[in-house]
Every structure is written in structure tokens, then in C-alpha cells.
Amino acid sequence: MKQMRLLSSRDNGDAMTAAAILPLMVHDLCYEIGGKRLLDHISFRTDVGPRTVVLGPNGAGKSLLLRLCHGLLQPSAGTIAWAGAPLTMARRCQAMVFQRPVLLRRSTAANIAYVLRLQGIPRRQRWAMLTEALEQAGLLPLAARPARVLSGGEQQRLALARAWVLKPQVLFLDEPTTSLDPAATRAVEALLEHIHRSGTKIIMTTHDLGQARRLADEVLFLHHGRLVEYAPAPAFFSNPQSKEAAAFLEGKLLW
Amino acid sequence: MDDVRVAFFTALSLLIGLDRDLLTIVRLSLAVSLSAVGLATVLGLPLGAAVAVWRFPGQAMVRVLLNALMGLPPVVVGLMVYLLLSRVGPLGSLGLLFTPTAMVIAQCLLVTPIIAAFTRQTVADLHEEYAEQLCSLGVGPWRVLWTLLWDGRFSLLTGILAGFGRASAEVGAVIMVGGNIHRVTRVITTTIALETSKGNFPLALALGMLLMLLVLTVNATAMVIQDTARRVYG
């Protein structure tokens, strides 16, 4: 842990170049609450590169899977492992953006500066990182504005910029555009494209088929807490193997 | 009725003429209550935040206790502090009874539960919203407290002002541990009580009006701060 900190402050907070944590290996993952099994024996392995979209109807367990992988929840059974690092270290190389952005009651810039301070980035480097992140998210003119009065789309872009400012190896996103209008959704997707190209692995959930088609390189299709299909995006969309996935793609409501 | 009118105008002339006795009393009142509230803030904010956020054994007990202590009768606090500081009490050797310090201690005991209980509620609400995000960012337990206190700063200020209102308006505790000694421990509320019982209404009335003004100002300030904060910070 201590070594990690040293490394991260030496090379510009880019802890992520220190050791590659991917691939992510999930094995027989179960999650139960109050005797109800919400995730049932999920196993998959995903590596650097492809954007992974967790797809499925509401209540399939998509958000739950993301939270478990990120370490916000403890599995009831099964394992989640990162090849390159133990869990606690791997956590430092990940970030997560939630469906409803959780912004501190401070200015836009201060929201990002908070993360930089938290990670012990030296003061003189903070400014450059902060400016870059704000600029990338198109928020530079709003830097001094209180974060809470930004529009929904701006708030989500700020949450993304804050998650990305430390260049995490893995970025989890839970339905990042659900509450946004089409224009704001486009802006967020463009930002995601940029983050993907910069080398950050994206793992996101959505129940929006259009978005999945636009963004996915590979699809994890969940239904009733089970992993029904795990396939490269083109294959999944053109030729789904399961009847649940086929029904979902046809737009039939799944229960 | 005439007496009351005369008393009223005498009171006004005392206020306008900045009567020296009156000023001494007001100054001591402010000094005692502000010190007490300052101390109670330093104690109450971390205490309330810790009870709201950290999980520890006996947490529910502390929570119940805090809420119960909010309604602590001032005379009971006065009695406790009196026993503590009296010659035969455990802290008697310090010789603090009948000094302004004793009054600060008593008011601090009265106000700390108010500020702590208020903080607990504010911070708990904020934490419900922030918990996952802070956990995701890997924020340590102490920093979580500080973050929540800072982000709740405007709401918390209202709690602190409520505490100040309580401290500056109470009479039971300070009269017992202060002794209401002329020019030493005589404050607004104790003077009002004394002068009223003596039948000297002008001074009592002048101080009463000042106290009303003070409490009104404090409440108006609290309202303005919260409205502004809500508008600006959302």
C-alpha cells in the first residue's frame, strides 16, 4: 500500500502505470440478501481493451454486479479477483460513476481537486491535471460554479471527469445517461469514447439498447441474476444464442 | 399603567445613552455565551458526526442520550456544575465557582448536546447520499467526517446559532454557578430576574428588549444563511 502511494506520487499520480490490474476474473459469484438470491453463480473474465456493457432488463442485477466488482459490496459466495494486484491495491486503480452523480457541495473545480488531494498529488501538479480534466469534459468555463447548480448533463460530465482525472485502469459506470436528455447523453458518450481511447477499460451497465449498440465491444447479458450470455457485441446483436437475449433484442418486455 | 410607560422610556434612555452598567452586563453575557458555544461547537461537531457515520458498540445509546440531553433543564446542569466546582466537590480546588468560567462550563454542557444532535441529523442525511461515492474514492474514516462536516457547513451553522440562542437566553444554570455578583458574574438574564424581583423595571426592560433583539437577529441570520446556501449550493 505504502509503496503504491510512493509510486503514484512520483509519476504524476498515474498509479495505473504501476501495475496492470486486469484481467478481472469473476468466479461463481453469488449475492444474496434476506435469503433472496439476486446474483446466481456468475463467472466471466474480461481483459484490457474492449468496452464491456452489462445489459439486461430492470432488476436483472446489473448494478449489483458492478458494485460487487468495484468492491462496494461483499459477495455472499464466489470470488472476484484482479490478476495484477490484490483487491485493496486494485481498488486504487478503479473509479466508479453512479446513475445519479454524487457531487460534493463545492465548486466544480473543487470536486476534482478533492480527489487529487485525497491521493496526495503534489500541489504543483494538481493544477495541470485539474485543468486537463475540466477541459476534456467541456467544463472549464464552469470551473467556479457550485457543482450542485449545474445541469444534469454537466453534473454527469463532472462526475466522469472526477473519476477519470487519476487515469484509472478500470472505470465502472452504472447507467450513466439514464436521467439525461439526448443531447446530454451524446456529450457523455463522446467523453466515454475519449476515455476509452486513452486506454481506460470501461465496464458499464445500461438498459438502453441503442446505447449498448453504440458503445459495446462485448456484452454481458444478465437476466434474473444469471449470466445468460457473454459474447462480442457484433455476434450478440446479430445472432443471440439464448431466447431471453433474443426477446430482449426484439424489444419484448422480459420478466 | 403610567409606571410601565415611565419604565419603558427610562429603558430607552438607558439603551440610547449606552449606560455603563448595561454595557458591562451585555459584554459579559456575550463573552460567556460565545465562549460556551465556541467550546460546544468544537466538542459537538465531531461528536455528532462520529455518531452519525461510524459504527461502534453503544452507538444507539449515545444517540438516545444526545437527544435526551437536548432538553436538559438548565437548573439541573447548574446543580451538577455547582456540585462539581464547590469547595467540597472534585474540582473544588480550582476555585472556579462563582466565576465567569463556571458559567461558560455550565452553558457549554447545555449547548453541546444541541449542537451534537443537530450535527448528527445533518451529517447522517448527507452520509446517506455520499457513502457509496466516498467509499468508491477510498476516503478514510477521519476524512469522511471532515468532508461531511464541511459539506454540511451551512446547515450546521443553523444548529450552532440555535445553541447560541439557548445559551444566551437561559438563566437557571448561570445564576446558580455564577452567583449573579455585581460587575463580576451578572449577565443579561440574571439581571432581568434580579431587577424584576426588586421592582427596578427600567433596567430589566432595557435588557429584555436587547435580549429579544439578539435572539431575533440570531434567528434571522440563521434563516438568511440557509436560504442563501440552498439557492447557491443546491
Which features does this protein show?
heterodimer; A: 255 residues; alpha/beta; Rossmann fold; six-stranded mixed beta sheet; three-stranded antiparallel beta sheet; 10 helices; B: 234 residues; mainly alpha; MetI-like fold; globular
Description:
The complex is a heterodimer of chains A (255) and B (234). Chain A has helices spanning 2-10, 62-70, 87-91, 108-118, 123-136, 152-164, 182-197, 209-215, 233-238, 243-249; strands at residues 24-33, 36-46, 52-55, 77-82, 94-97, 170-174, 201-206, 218-223, 226-232. Chain A is of the alpha/beta class and 255 residues long. Chain A has a single domain (48-70, 93-249), classed as Rossmann fold. Chain A has a six-stranded mixed β-sheet, sandwiched between helices. Chain A has a three-stranded antiparallel β-sheet with strand order 2-1-4, with helices on one face. In chain A, a hairpin with a 2-residue loop joins strand 8 (218-223) and strand 9 (226-232). Chain A is globular and about 55 Å long. Chain B has a single domain (2-233), classed as MetI-like (MetI-like fold). Helix content of chain B is 81%, strand content 0%. Chain B is built from ten helices and no strands. In chain B, helix 1 (2-16) crosses helix 10 (201-233). The chains are: A alpha/beta (255), B mainly alpha (234).
